[in-house]
Write a structure and sequence with these properties.
The complex is a heterodimer. By secondary structure, chain A is an all-beta fold. Chain A is built from no helices and twelve strands. The model of chain A has no long low-confidence stretch (mean pLDDT 92). Chain B is 0% helix and 56% strand. Classes of the chains: A mainly beta, B mainly beta. The interface between A and B is medium-sized, with 22 and 24 residues.
């Protein structure tokens, strides 16, 4: 069975500082990996995804993530955050042959001035 | 392309009533999934439909049901509402040819009094 662990429930960071949101998964098969962002009172918005190819994936709003198969991780990074990046971030995994996507519990990013 | 549409956006019901929520996926997508999101339980998978067939179901009681129509629009129904059903209900339109990428609607916020 697949599972997704987001290692930090909350991450406070100062504006213009770098940030890394950590995500580990477990799966016995090949996977697709996703990061979503949710702003208050809104649905989830796709930030980026890894389907195949280059392990470094660039997404919207300056975010990027790196797929590390040996570590079974897909950490999200941004070199310099803005106040507007304050939101909840979800990591998700689906196996390449199945139909079900598993979401992590979410990481709440607080960007402070 | 138009995004995912969910109606209504907000709903207030009383215990014991039933409710029907609607979701129109992105044009060309034949698969939708539904999630319940609450502060305590996070994002929980309800069910997923592909071409009018339910292909995955989460661990929710039988009071929660859904269906998909030939035009890919989907509805979910909750009967005999309980206070604990108060939540944000999210629908996602799934690109099955794009790594099962899910594109979320804005959600329906249900309050049960």
């Amino acid at each position: 069975a697949q599972s997704v662990t987001q290692l930090d429930s909350q991450v406070p960071v100062f504006e213009e500082a770098p940030v890394e949101l950590r995500c580990n998964y477990s799966s016995s098969v090949s996977v697709y990996l996703f990061w979503y962002v949710q702003y208050p009172n809104q649905g989830l918005q796709l930030l980026l995804k890894y389907l195949s190819g280059s392990t470094l994936v660039k997404g919207i709003n300056g975010f990027e993530a790196e797929f590390n198969k040996s570590q079974t991780s897909f950490h999200l990074r941004k070199p310099s955050v803005h106040i507007s990046d304050t939101a909840e971030y979800f990591c998700a995994v689906s196996d390449t042959g199945g139909f079900k996507t598993i979401f992590g519990a979410g990481t709440r990013l607080f960007v402070k001035a | 392309k138009a995004g995912v549409t969910q109606t209504p956006r907000y709903l207030i019901k009383t215990r014991g009533q039933q409710v029907t929520l609607s979701c129109s996926p992105i044009s060309g997508h034949r698969s939708v999934s539904w999630y319940q999101q609450t502060p305590g339980q996070g994002l929980q998978f309800l069910f997923e439909y592909f071409s009018e067939t339910q292909r995955n179901k989460g661990n929710f009681p039988g009071r929660f049901s859904g269906r998909q129509f030939s035009n890919s629009r989907s509805e979910m129904n909750v009967s005999t509402l309980e206070l604990g059903d108060s939540a944000l209900y999210l629908c996602a339109s799934i690109d099955v040819r794009g790594g099962e990428t899910q594109y979320f609607g804005p959600g329906t916020r249900l309050l049960v009094l």
